[in-house]
Design brief:
alpha+beta; Sufe protein. Chain: A
Length: about 130
């Protein structure tokens, strides 16, 4: 998980990215700012991240960013719902590439808020998209 957290350097913050969102975990205080560019259909084409998160939050953000391209707000929201169900013990491991890396953190409820930061920040940013 620590190695994945260092992968965030692949997604540097870029002031030129037009859609911006933020999320904060109430349980651990981690936060994440995200900037996105989307195509004409609202699908993510570029991600920039500014993390202030624990290793779990950073690793989850890396997992998010690595598979975000081509996804729209509806797909992100569906994944967020699946993650919430999984965290609550009410669903299978979410169908998001690389998410199995985050699986050990399910046993630590204090980190659940950090796990969903990227999906929440993306939804916040995508709420600004108006074609």
């Amino acid at each position: 998980m620590l190695a994945a957290a260092t992968g965030l350097a692949t997604y540097p913050w870029d002031e030129a990215l037009p859609l911006r969102g933020e999320a904060r975990s109430r349980s651990c205080g981690s936060s994440l700012a995200m900037a996105l560019a989307v195509d004409g259909e609202g699908r993510i084409v570029r991600v920039g991240l500014r993390p202030h998160a624990c290793a779990v939050g950073q690793a989850a953000a890396n997992v998010f960013a690595a598979a975000a391209a081509g996804r729209n707000a509806e797909e992100i929201a569906a994944a967020r719902s699946a993650i919430a169900a999984w965290l609550a013990g009410d669903g299978p491991l979410p169908d998001w590439p690389g998410f199995e890396l985050i699986e050990p953190a399910q046993a630590y409820p204090g980190r659940h808020g950090a796990i969903v930061l990227a999906w929440d920040a993306a939804l916040d940013a995508l709420s600004l998209y108006h074609p």
